[in-house]
Amino acid sequence: MSAVVEPQPPVAPHPAIAPLAPLLGTWRGDGQGEYPTIQPFGYLEEVRFGHLGRPFLTYRQRTRAADDGRPLHAETGYLRCPSPDRVELILAHPTGITEICEGSLTFEDGALRMELDSTSIGRSSTAKLVTALGRSIRQTGDTIDYTLRMAAVGEPMQHHLAASLKRAD
């Protein structure tokens, strides 16, 4: 049995996520990845931040290889703002990893900044061993720049990804 969802009128963002409102929309760009256990690679990325009128943003990320367009990675989850200077990112990865990161939210010189570190990493029995993740995100105007740090498969925490995304809508 299938259900049909009727289109709903636009709803205003919840007041608790007002500091995150500049992120709403679709962002596209490219990045570079590296790690001691893999060859460096380029990728194309799309990120969508949405909302449902509740105190969180929805988050959907997809990447594909820059050289041949093959799918690489995806993440889906939520971004919460429990206080004006704190942020939480809750994600599921199709590789069997779940990630909860928490950290600071600041605004300086027109830039929104988030500094996030993992507080919990869950994994299925077949997932690679990822022990820690950290993200630095900066949104200024129509640009999001980020870096991702990772400790995995016996390697210590270190740089893994960096990308720059532009507002697409």
Automatic annotation (TrEMBL):
This enzyme's EC code(s): 5.99.-.-
Motif (GXWXGXG): 25-31
Cofactor: heme b
InterPro entries given in the database record: Calycin (IPR012674), Nb(III)_bact/plant (IPR022939), Nitrobindin (IPR045165), PeroxynitIsom (IPR054873), THAP4-like_heme-bd (IPR014878)
Domain THAP4-like heme-binding: residue ranges: 17-167
Pathway: Nitrogen metabolism
Residue numbers binding heme b: T37, K128, H160
Catalytic reaction equation(s): peroxynitrite = nitrate
Family note: Belongs to the nitrobindin family.
Free-text note regarding domains: Forms a 10-stranded antiparallel beta-barrel structure able to accommodate a hydrophobic ligand in its interior. In fact, this fold hosts the heme group, which is located in a wide surface cleft.
PANTHER family named in the record: PEROXYNITRITE ISOMERASE THAP4, THAP4 PROTEIN
Summary of the function given for this chain in its UniProt record: Heme-binding protein able to scavenge peroxynitrite and to protect free L-tyrosine against peroxynitrite-mediated nitration, by acting as a peroxynitrite isomerase that converts peroxynitrite to nitrate. Therefore, this protein likely plays a role in peroxynitrite sensing and in the detoxification of reactive nitrogen and oxygen species (RNS and ROS, respectively). Is able to bind nitric oxide (NO) in vitro, but may act as a sensor of peroxynitrite levels in vivo.
Protein name per Swiss-Prot or TrEMBL: Peroxynitrite isomerase
Organism: Nocardia arthritidis
Record lineage: Bacteria, Bacillati, Actinomycetota, Actinomycetes, Mycobacteriales
